[in-house]
Amino acid sequence: xxxxxxxxxxxxxxxxxxxxxxxxxxxxxxxxxxxxxxxxxxxxxxxxxxxxxxxxxxxxxxxxxxxxxxxxxxxxxxxxxxxxxxxxxxxxxxxxxxxxxxxxxxxxxxxxxxxxxxxxxxxxxxxxxxxxxxxxxxxxxxxxxxxxxxxxxxxxxxxxxxxxxxxxxxxxxx
Amino acid sequence: xxxxxxxxxxxxxxxxxxxxxxxxxxxxxxxxxxxxxxxxxxxxxxxxxxxxxxxxxxxxxxxxxxxxxxxxxxxxxxxxxxxxxxxxxxxxxxxxxxxxxxxxxxxxxxxxxxxxxxxxxxxxxxxxxxxxxxxxxxxxxxxxxxxxxxxxxxxxxxxxxxxxxxxxxxxxxx
Lengths: 174, 174
Description:
2 copies of one chain form a homodimer.
Chain A (H helix, E strand, L loop, with lengths): L3 E6 L7 H13 L4 E5 L5 H12 L4 E5 L2 H10 L3 E11 L3 H6 L4 E6 L6 H5 L2 E4 L7 H12 L14 E3 L8 E3 L1
Helix pairs in contact in A: 1-6
């Protein structure tokens, strides 16, 4: 099965810390295998390790200081680079991307991204053409890409598991 | 047509400021009519007003200091209260909610929410049972609720409009 990774490009380091954490949590919860982040808080790796330990799976975080290099590596390995931007093509293009059955690198930026990213990407895709958030754009893109099946994914070696409940919290220890 | 509003309950005021902004942007971009926020930054109203002016629509922000009162008002008016939480029922229940054809108040919290919220809500719904973000939970819930049609919504009286583009930015002045 093909791999999905996320590349988060941040530009306003301190302000974006918590947003970057949310982007990483979304990548993990919506079925991606890993995230590369630029200039993120160092304890993100530790946070995600603790989360994997508790809730399962082996989602990986890699810090990088050269996003262009990540894109280059990905293209050299014949992966697709998909940049999420409100200026891109309608999200319906996700069908075409899925049918290619290749590894996918999903790139999300903060408010401003370098213009050359548009040219480097194989696809520039818009999750709607109104401003919202890289957190929501990533979630909805992955939800469409995996056709909703990612929400039923089993995370291996979890210590805790939630049993769906109409009116409260029902968590079992495994 | 029935109305959809979002109620954002925040608990760690300063840390949650930017997340609250993202929640508001998601509510607007994914077809909700308004958002109530608790203890949010005051300039959120100004930000959204500027956004409406530029990108259209009349999405409303209302500050409140009593979330229970908002829920009570909503229930008195026969609206449904839907609380998004990783502990809730699977998202498939959104079909049942849509079929009821009522006004919907979607409640999203920060990491911790008061326990009594579970009992006050008509539905506790999980967008997956892994931790992620209220920003992504809201986006995916609304995307499912509106069956993706919200992304094609026209925002009235916009000054700018994006034309979908494969490789750059194409914005027209209206």
